[in-house]
Inverse folding.
């Protein structure tokens, strides 16, 4: 039988040497959300397929082409989540969170799945940091959510991210806009791809999100939704811009932003870095009602973690250092190996990262291993050290050595040495 040695196309392994970068981003993003009053929520990786069809939109590329859908014997049809919002809204409805005090604020870090063409910054399994705010229609809430997204970039150290905003109106003003779009693209139907022929009849706004060059060229002079906004939507958008100005958040109005999911209303926004969208979101006031809950305004954003980490790497942003071994205990002989195991357990019991030999190496290979894992301190014990009840503890950065007892006080003595400013300030005796 042939070995399966390759990961599926469009997926990526995060090996131990790189996972600290993910820990950094996840921690800083979560800290940003907590400062704004958001609390973590966790939802299933798969949901009933109908949830995504109703929320994301039947005419979107996500539903038409990209969802991973499965059916198990005796079960309904399920889909691996292509995005985070729908599942979170379902959870809020089902768990009675909408009956609690508004606004409700939730954040999450999830894996998502879309069967897309694999390219730079785009995978079939990808990860999102997302935030959702439920229960307020105020434009100031839009500014707050945008401010939170902005704070994540600031927190991880990314510079030069540009914010683009737009309003795609409400169902009332979008009706006239949809008609204007249909008239415009009907006159250019021969230039459209096959998918856009279908979109033209079912949802003309989706034509603006098509990536086919001929369709993008055909739509360059298309009517703009911002010219069709009703008075309420205009007032909402103007209030949002005022609030962003008050917070000192720079932005550009991009009337071509429509986002790729059907549930958006009014405010939509994107954060762009080097031509890539690293965060996108907006308001979706009708989504909860569409999913069977009470009419409740809501908004949020999703941020791709793979892209975020890639941008951080290119900019030379700082990542938290991998957890470093505090002490490696090298041993010679069976009695010393047994004591090394006990000493490591004692140190771990008070919160230190300690290692000892598990392979049966000689002293030289053990020292090479200690160097490879970046141990801060090394101690070598054998029969002589056990008989004396003490050994030399070596600081691997400075080369300084300090005698340390091997008995019951070992862990306590190590902690004293570890926290001291220098070895010279420590006098533990024998």
């Amino acid at each position: 039988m042939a070995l399966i040695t390759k990961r599926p196309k469009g997926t990526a392994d995060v090996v131990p040497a790189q996972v600290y970068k993910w820990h950094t981003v996840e921690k800083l993003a979560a800290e940003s959300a907590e400062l704004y009053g958001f609390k973590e929520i966790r939802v299933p990786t798969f949901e009933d397929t109908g949830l995504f069809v109703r929320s994301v939109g039947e005419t979107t590329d996500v539903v038409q082409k990209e969802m991973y859908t499965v059916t198990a014997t005796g079960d309904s049809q399920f889909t691996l989540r292509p995005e985070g919002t729908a599942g979170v809204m379902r959870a809020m409805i089902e768990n009675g969170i909408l009956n609690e005090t508004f606004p409700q604020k939730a954040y999450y870090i999830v894996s998502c799945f879309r069967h897309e063409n694999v390219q730079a910054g785009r995978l079939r399994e990808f990860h999102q940091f997302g935030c959702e705010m439920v229960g307020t229609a105020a434009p100031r809430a839009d500014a707050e959510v945008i401010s939170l997204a902005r704070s994540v970039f600031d927190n991880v150290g990314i510079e030069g991210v540009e914010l683009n905003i737009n309003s795609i109106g409400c169902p009332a003003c979008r009706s006239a806009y949809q008609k204007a779009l249909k008239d415009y693209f009907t006159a250019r139907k021969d230039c459209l791809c096959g998918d856009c022929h279908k979109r033209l009849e079912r949802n003309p706004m989706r034509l603006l999100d098509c990536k086919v060059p001929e369709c993008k060229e055909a739509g360059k002079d298309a009517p703009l939704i911002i010219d069709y906004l009703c008075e309420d939507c205009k007032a909402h958008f103007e209030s949002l811009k005022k609030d962003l100005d008050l917070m000192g958040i720079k932005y550009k109005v991009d009337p071509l932003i429509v986002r790729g999911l059907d549930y958006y209303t009014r405010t939509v926004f994107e954060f762009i870095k080097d031509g890539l969208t690293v965060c996108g979101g907006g308001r979706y006031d009708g989504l909860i009602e569409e999913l069977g809950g009470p009419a409740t305004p809501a908004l949020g954003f999703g941020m791709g973690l793979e892209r975020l980490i890639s941008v951080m790497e290119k900019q030379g942003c700082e990542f938290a250092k991998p957890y470093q071994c505090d002490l490696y205990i090298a041993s010679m002989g069976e009695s010393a190996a047994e004591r090394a195991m006990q000493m490591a357990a004692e140190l771990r019991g008070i919160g230190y990262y300690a290692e000892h030999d598990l392979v049966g190496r000689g002293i030289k290979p053990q020292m090479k291993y200690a160097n490879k894992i970046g141990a801060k301190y090394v101690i070598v014990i054998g029969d002589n050290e056990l008989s004396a009840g003490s050994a030399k503890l070596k600081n691997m950065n400075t080369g300084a050595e300090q005698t340390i007892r091997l008995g019951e006080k070992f862990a306590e003595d190590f902690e004293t040495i570890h926290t001291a400013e220098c070895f010279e300030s420590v006098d533990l005796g024998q």
Summary: The radius of gyration is 29 Å.
